[in-house]
Known about the structure:
alpha+beta; 4-stranded mixed sheet; disordered N terminus
Amino acid sequence: MNTQYLRRDTGFENNLFSLLPEKFHDHFKKQIRYxxxxxxxxxxxxxxxxxxxxxxxxxxxxxxxxxxGKNVDFVSEYDGGKIYVEVKGFMPKNYQIAKRSxxxxxxxxxxxxxxxxxxxxxxxxSCNIVVIAEEETI
Length: 138
């Protein structure tokens, strides 16, 4: 099954929206509706924002420009400082395999790829976080 054309899981989405701060609802509703090839990435960002929010690290904005016109997924504030967060959600190659919690590629390969792809988005001497969301654990 090609995951780009996977039917959206509205129950899963509704659960994410119930955990997400309301000010981000419109942004992610558009992303999920019109950007189907990035479905797993967008749901990973939503889950991460919800987690940060529950931990008291309040997300302030999404798709924030940093360096060379590149965007991080969101910016949070904590203790008076900004935290730049890039989420790397790895789309499963096969949804049925993903539901059984099987993995493609090693965790080390996913970590290396995420760090390599995130480095040019971060600002030096700032708090930068890379979140690796392996979607095999749906």
